[in-house]
Amino acid sequence: MERPDIETCAACKLGPPDWDYTCRNCLRDFTMPAAKGPSEEKCRACPVCHSRNIERMNIAPSEANCAPGG
N or C: which end of the chain has fewer CB within 10 A? Predict the structure, then answer.
């Protein structure tokens, strides 16, 4: 299913997968679209407390075919 609000992946046409994170500061879980690259990943922050002390929790199986950001 295509997601019209984001760029689609050139390889799979599904768009980047969503990544799950946990904030180590406020312990909240949240989801964000896959980062377009390492510099974007490094700048990510918790949407609740704005801490950058976050941990990516899982990698979706579909990511094996898609580069970060699609």
Answer: N
Residue-number span of the structural domain to which 16 is assigned? 1-70
What lies within 8 Å, CB to CB, of 64 at 6+ separation is: none
pTM, to two decimals = 0.62
The answer to whether the Cα torsion of 50, 3, 37, 19 is positive or negative is positive
- Whether the CB-CB separation of 5 and 59 falls below 8 Å is answered with no
How many structural domains comprise the chain? 1
CA dist., res. 41 & res. 56, Å (int) = 10
Instruction: Give the tens place of pLDDT for each residue, 8-48.
Output: 555 556 667 889 999 999 999 999 998 888 999 999 999 99
Q: DSSP class of residue 67?
A: -
